[in-house]
Amino acid sequence: GAGVSQTPSNKVTEKGKYVELRCDPISGHTALYWYRQSLGQGPEFLIYFQGTGAADDSGLPNDRFFAVRPEGSVSTLKIQRTERGDSAVYLCASSLRDRVVNEQFFGPGTRLTVL
Amino acid sequence: AQKITQTQPGMFVQEKEAVTLDCTYDTSDQSYGLFWYKQPSSGEMIFLIYQGSYDEQNATEGRYSLNFQKARKSANLVISASQLGDSAMYFCAMREGPSFGNEKLTFGTGTRLTIIP
Question: Partner of B8 at 20 to 30 A CA spacing, among A40, A51, A104, B114?
Protein backbone atom coordinates (compact mmCIF):
# COMPACT_ATOMS: atom_id res chain seq x y z
CA GLY A 1 0.00 0.00 0.00
CA ALA A 2 0.92 3.65 -0.19
CA GLY A 3 3.32 5.01 2.37
CA VAL A 4 3.41 8.41 4.03
CA SER A 5 3.55 11.18 1.45
CA GLN A 6 4.72 14.75 1.92
CA THR A 7 4.36 17.78 -0.29
CA PRO A 8 6.17 19.70 -1.51
CA SER A 9 9.40 17.74 -1.59
CA ASN A 10 11.34 20.99 -1.70
CA LYS A 11 10.35 24.48 -0.66
CA VAL A 12 12.47 27.59 -1.04
CA THR A 13 11.19 30.74 0.58
CA GLU A 14 12.40 34.12 1.69
CA LYS A 15 12.93 35.18 5.26
CA GLY A 16 9.72 36.47 6.78
CA LYS A 17 7.38 34.52 4.50
CA TYR A 18 4.70 32.02 5.53
CA VAL A 19 4.93 28.37 4.49
CA GLU A 20 2.71 25.31 4.72
CA LEU A 21 3.99 21.75 4.60
CA ARG A 22 1.57 18.91 4.00
CA CYS A 23 1.61 15.31 5.23
CA ASP A 24 -0.65 12.49 4.07
CA PRO A 25 -0.31 9.51 6.46
CA ILE A 26 -0.78 5.85 5.74
CA SER A 27 -4.48 5.08 5.46
CA GLY A 28 -5.92 3.96 8.77
CA HIS A 29 -3.06 5.27 10.90
CA THR A 30 -4.50 7.26 13.77
CA ALA A 31 -1.27 8.79 15.04
CA LEU A 32 0.73 11.39 13.12
CA TYR A 33 4.06 12.95 14.04
CA TRP A 34 6.17 15.82 12.79
CA TYR A 35 9.94 15.91 13.20
CA ARG A 36 12.60 18.34 12.02
CA GLN A 37 16.02 17.16 10.87
CA SER A 38 18.83 19.66 10.59
CA LEU A 39 21.95 18.88 8.61
CA GLY A 40 24.09 16.25 10.29
CA GLN A 41 21.59 15.64 13.07
CA GLY A 42 18.97 13.10 13.93
CA PRO A 43 15.28 13.98 13.67
CA GLU A 44 13.94 16.18 16.45
CA PHE A 45 10.35 15.77 17.63
CA LEU A 46 7.96 18.66 17.02
CA ILE A 47 4.37 17.53 17.56
CA TYR A 48 2.18 14.44 17.76
CA PHE A 49 -1.49 14.05 16.83
CA GLN A 50 -3.85 11.35 17.97
CA GLY A 51 -6.85 11.74 15.72
CA THR A 52 -7.64 15.41 15.24
CA GLY A 53 -6.09 16.71 18.43
CA ALA A 54 -2.50 17.56 19.21
CA ALA A 55 -1.62 15.20 22.06
CA ASP A 56 1.92 16.51 22.52
CA ASP A 57 3.24 19.75 21.03
CA SER A 58 6.17 20.09 23.40
CA GLY A 59 8.70 20.08 20.56
CA LEU A 60 7.39 23.12 18.70
CA PRO A 61 10.23 25.65 19.04
CA ASN A 62 8.07 28.78 19.32
CA ASP A 63 4.69 30.22 18.43
CA ARG A 64 5.66 30.73 14.80
CA PHE A 65 5.10 27.00 14.35
CA PHE A 66 1.62 25.54 14.25
CA ALA A 67 0.15 22.29 12.98
CA VAL A 68 -3.38 21.07 12.29
CA ARG A 69 -5.08 17.82 11.43
CA PRO A 70 -8.72 18.84 11.04
CA GLU A 71 -10.20 15.53 9.85
CA GLY A 72 -7.81 13.13 11.53
CA SER A 73 -5.96 12.28 8.36
CA VAL A 74 -3.93 14.87 6.42
CA SER A 75 -1.88 17.28 8.51
CA THR A 76 -0.40 20.67 7.70
CA LEU A 77 2.59 22.18 9.45
CA LYS A 78 2.49 25.96 9.25
CA ILE A 79 5.44 28.24 9.82
CA GLN A 80 4.96 32.00 10.07
CA ARG A 81 7.61 34.66 9.59
CA THR A 82 10.20 32.11 8.53
CA GLU A 83 13.79 32.55 9.66
CA ARG A 84 16.99 31.20 8.15
CA GLY A 85 17.32 28.89 11.16
CA ASP A 86 14.11 27.14 10.14
CA SER A 87 15.93 25.61 7.17
CA ALA A 88 15.82 21.84 7.62
CA VAL A 89 14.12 18.70 6.41
CA TYR A 90 10.68 18.34 7.93
CA LEU A 91 9.70 14.70 8.36
CA CYS A 92 6.23 13.36 8.94
CA ALA A 93 5.48 9.91 10.33
CA SER A 94 2.38 7.90 11.16
CA SER A 95 1.61 4.84 13.23
CA LEU A 96 -1.25 2.48 14.05
CA ARG A 97 -0.81 2.64 17.81
CA ASP A 98 -2.28 -0.81 18.17
CA ARG A 99 0.86 -2.73 19.04
CA VAL A 100 3.48 -2.61 21.72
CA VAL A 101 6.15 -1.76 19.17
CA ASN A 102 4.13 1.09 17.69
CA GLU A 103 6.78 1.79 15.08
CA GLN A 104 6.52 5.02 13.19
CA PHE A 105 6.52 5.01 9.40
CA PHE A 106 8.21 8.04 7.90
CA GLY A 107 7.63 9.99 4.73
CA PRO A 108 10.39 11.27 2.43
CA GLY A 109 10.39 14.70 4.03
CA THR A 110 10.09 18.28 2.83
CA ARG A 111 13.36 20.16 2.48
CA LEU A 112 12.73 23.76 3.52
CA THR A 113 15.27 26.40 2.60
CA VAL A 114 14.84 29.92 3.93
CA LEU A 115 16.93 32.48 2.08
CA ALA B 1 23.04 14.78 29.22
CA GLN B 2 22.33 13.31 25.82
CA LYS B 3 19.50 10.81 25.91
CA ILE B 4 20.87 8.85 22.94
CA THR B 5 24.57 8.71 22.16
CA GLN B 6 26.02 7.30 18.99
CA THR B 7 29.78 7.65 19.17
CA GLN B 8 30.67 6.49 15.66
CA PRO B 9 30.08 9.27 13.14
CA GLY B 10 31.23 7.04 10.27
CA MET B 11 32.20 3.44 9.64
CA PHE B 12 33.67 1.62 6.66
CA VAL B 13 33.09 -2.12 6.44
CA GLN B 14 34.03 -4.71 3.85
CA GLU B 15 31.11 -6.33 2.08
CA LYS B 16 29.94 -9.62 3.68
CA GLU B 17 31.48 -8.77 7.03
CA ALA B 18 29.40 -8.20 10.16
CA VAL B 19 29.20 -4.70 11.64
CA THR B 20 28.18 -3.38 15.04
CA LEU B 21 26.79 0.12 15.42
CA ASP B 22 26.95 1.47 18.95
CA CYS B 23 24.15 3.15 20.86
CA THR B 24 23.94 4.10 24.52
CA TYR B 25 20.92 5.70 26.13
CA ASP B 26 20.00 7.56 29.27
CA THR B 27 16.62 7.33 30.97
CA SER B 28 15.23 6.99 34.46
CA ASP B 29 12.06 5.28 33.21
CA GLN B 30 11.67 1.55 33.79
CA SER B 31 9.52 1.14 30.70
CA TYR B 32 10.97 2.34 27.43
CA GLY B 33 11.52 1.22 23.86
CA LEU B 34 14.58 1.35 21.65
CA PHE B 35 14.45 1.59 17.87
CA TRP B 36 16.89 1.53 15.01
CA TYR B 37 16.14 3.31 11.76
CA LYS B 38 18.03 3.36 8.47
CA GLN B 39 18.12 6.52 6.36
CA PRO B 40 19.41 6.00 2.80
CA SER B 41 20.44 8.96 0.67
CA SER B 42 16.81 9.25 -0.48
CA GLY B 43 16.04 10.60 2.97
CA GLU B 44 13.23 8.30 4.08
CA MET B 45 13.60 6.74 7.53
CA ILE B 46 13.15 2.97 7.44
CA PHE B 47 12.30 1.08 10.63
CA LEU B 48 14.65 -1.85 11.25
CA ILE B 49 14.23 -3.30 14.72
CA TYR B 50 12.72 -2.69 18.15
CA GLN B 51 13.66 -3.71 21.70
CA GLY B 52 11.39 -3.17 24.66
CA SER B 53 12.93 -2.59 28.06
CA TYR B 54 11.16 -5.63 29.51
CA ASP B 55 12.03 -7.94 26.63
CA GLU B 56 14.25 -10.71 27.93
CA GLN B 57 15.48 -11.82 24.53
CA ASN B 58 17.53 -9.72 22.16
CA ALA B 59 15.46 -8.67 19.17
CA THR B 60 16.26 -10.10 15.74
CA GLU B 61 14.90 -9.25 12.30
CA GLY B 62 16.56 -11.09 9.45
CA ARG B 63 20.17 -9.87 9.22
CA TYR B 64 19.59 -7.33 11.98
CA SER B 65 19.94 -8.08 15.66
CA LEU B 66 20.01 -5.86 18.67
CA ASN B 67 22.58 -6.47 21.40
CA PHE B 68 20.65 -5.18 24.40
CA GLN B 69 22.64 -4.74 27.62
CA LYS B 70 20.22 -3.14 30.03
CA ALA B 71 22.63 -2.63 32.93
CA ARG B 72 25.05 -0.82 30.62
CA LYS B 73 22.19 1.05 28.92
CA SER B 74 23.40 0.04 25.51
CA ALA B 75 21.47 -1.15 22.46
CA ASN B 76 23.93 -1.90 19.71
CA LEU B 77 22.74 -2.86 16.24
CA VAL B 78 24.46 -5.81 14.60
CA ILE B 79 24.19 -6.31 10.87
CA SER B 80 25.38 -9.69 9.68
CA ALA B 81 26.78 -10.37 6.21
CA SER B 82 26.73 -6.73 5.14
CA GLN B 83 25.62 -5.80 1.63
CA LEU B 84 26.29 -2.77 -0.55
CA GLY B 85 22.68 -1.71 -0.04
CA ASP B 86 23.34 -1.36 3.69
CA SER B 87 25.28 1.84 3.02
CA ALA B 88 23.22 4.55 4.75
CA MET B 89 22.84 6.60 7.91
CA TYR B 90 21.68 4.61 10.91
CA PHE B 91 19.84 6.19 13.81
CA CYS B 92 19.18 4.84 17.26
CA ALA B 93 16.05 6.22 18.94
CA MET B 94 14.26 5.87 22.26
CA ARG B 95 10.69 6.18 23.43
CA GLU B 96 10.55 6.87 27.15
CA GLY B 97 7.65 5.40 29.05
CA PRO B 98 5.11 2.78 27.93
CA SER B 99 4.11 2.46 24.32
CA PHE B 100 0.86 4.38 24.58
CA GLY B 101 0.78 7.92 25.81
CA ASN B 102 4.50 8.47 25.34
CA GLU B 103 4.83 8.69 21.64
CA LYS B 104 7.76 10.87 20.78
CA LEU B 105 11.06 9.40 19.73
CA THR B 106 14.39 10.89 20.72
CA PHE B 107 17.07 10.22 18.14
CA GLY B 108 20.85 10.08 18.27
CA THR B 109 23.08 11.88 15.81
CA GLY B 110 23.51 8.81 13.66
CA THR B 111 26.29 6.69 12.18
CA ARG B 112 27.10 6.80 8.48
CA LEU B 113 27.86 3.25 7.35
CA THR B 114 29.69 2.67 4.09
CA ILE B 115 30.04 -0.85 2.72
CA ILE B 116 33.13 -1.37 0.60
CA PRO B 117 32.91 -3.89 -2.28
Answer: A104
